[in-house]
Amino acid sequence: MVMTRDPCPVTRAxxxxxxxxxVEQRYCLITPAYNEEANLPRLVRSVTAQTIPPVLWxxxxxxxxxxxxxxxxxxxxxxxxxxxxxxxxxxxxxxxRRKIAAFxxxxxxxxxxxxxxxxxxxxxxxxxxxxxxxxxxxRAFSENPRLxxxxxxxxxxxxxxxxxxxxxAIPGSILMFRRECFEAIGGYLPLPYGGExxxxxxxxxxxxxxxGFFPQHVVTQHRVVGTAENTGILKAxxxxxxxxxxxxxxxxxxxxxxxxxxxxxxxxxxxxVARYLxxxxxxxxxxxxxxxxxARALLRKEQWQRIFPGxx
Length: 312
What we know:
Helix content is 41%, strand content 20%. Strand 4, helix 2 and strand 5 form a beta-alpha-beta unit. The longest helix has 19 residues.
């Protein structure tokens, strides 16, 4: 597959894209944004510098209280592939439900434009990346027709984070779908305590797709995962524990994971204690998990194989 460089295409009218990029290389991006005025300029520089830029980039302003909305309108005038959406923030749901609702509204806009594309990317606003990041992902998809979801690693504070759950677990902040895979699994299933990216990968594997983690392609994340709404880091770790219970983590795997995180994740020890307390509290807080049984079964099977390699 020969990669071609194409400038960020000009939108003539909704659904019409002036782009010489072959359809099999075309991708759309969706970025939910809440109070991201400080991060968006850096993100835009990264995306517009891509060797293969998106044909459409929908940025959803989810009721921001800073200058995000104004900045988006300026970006839309300067970067033709950017389409802003301004929505009223729903304060009744959890942070994770709101984020998925914003993504879904962005996806509806992608469908409304009639854009021709083969891949769909979820991109958080606090990311920066090398100019060849998406070209590398497209190459991986081209080399493996069964690859349904792909993504690289992310670095925060100088440390590259690698998956513990599954060798092909992909950070949700840079997750990229093959269009057919996204449609086959029905997109994201909103979960009250997060983990929708993990669930999407599980559902893809349940459906016979492969998921690919490519640690050689590293992006930079400029904020601690789970703290986008000025949430304290210990509270974020606690919510991550709730998410793991909601997804159906095996108790032994969760305990081992927290022990390992004591050594590699800040704040050391107390962060892992907060995460495991969240997992234990999940038994009392979460009565009915929306996670499908097939995904939970696959999750535990994969975790058991990580604990005891070679055993089913």
